[in-house]
Amino acid sequence: MYEFTIIVPVYNEEDNLQRVEQELLAYTKIATKKTAILFVNDGSVDKSEQFIKEICERNEVFDYISFKENRGLSAAIKAGFDHVSTQLLGYIDSDLQTSPEDFNVLLEHIGEYDLVTGVRADRKDSFVKNMSSRIANGIRRAFTHDGMDDTGCPLKVIKTDYAKRIPMFKGLHRFLPAMILLQNGKILQVPVRHFPRIAGKAKFGLWNRLLGPLMDCFAYLWMKKKYINYEVKQKE
Hints:
- This protein is an alpha/beta fold.
- It has eight helices and seven strands, in the order E-H-E-H-E-H-E-H-E-H-E-H-H-E-H.
- It has helices at residues 17-30, 48-58, 73-83, 103-107, 127-144, 160-163, 176-182, 206-226; strands at 4-10, 35-41, 62-66, 88-92, 115-120, 155-159, 187-192.
- It has a seven-stranded mixed beta sheet, with helices on both faces.
- The two termini are 30 Å apart.
């Protein structure tokens, strides 16, 4: 029985999927938890869906769901949360700028914490991308007080019951640690490795990394004010 499911959102990543298959399959051989992989095809218009189906046919640890049309990263992550049945879930981008092997580093801490997120050490991105990300993270911290340095890191492990209670909206994938805190959960950040993108194209520009997150902060503040949190004391 699987203990851990890795969610892999995919949007037009046909050039990366062979490497994704190889690296994730290799990880399942060394994983500290029995691991399954769930692709979420976010309405790709290249050959990604075809390649995903072939990967799943070759390997029983892989499964997939496909959207009718592109709905964005937050929707893909939410769909993954909805379809996972293991007690733990993880998330990694299909560009593999982070290593699946580092899931073992995060899993070391998940017993005590409800979300463990990576912090990209020695980032291999452009100056503009790094600076816009740093500014966006600073703005987000000022709004959420979550203490996280790099919520955009595409390597996370979450206890599934907490993940399923997150009320997702577009852009909220940047606020996953803050949403765990709203549930009175415990969060931790751990340094992980970061690598240059080898194939495919980045899906986020300056608007997505800087201006969009600023607007999302106001949506988060509204949600924080309205968020319903309760604990059942007794039931028959």
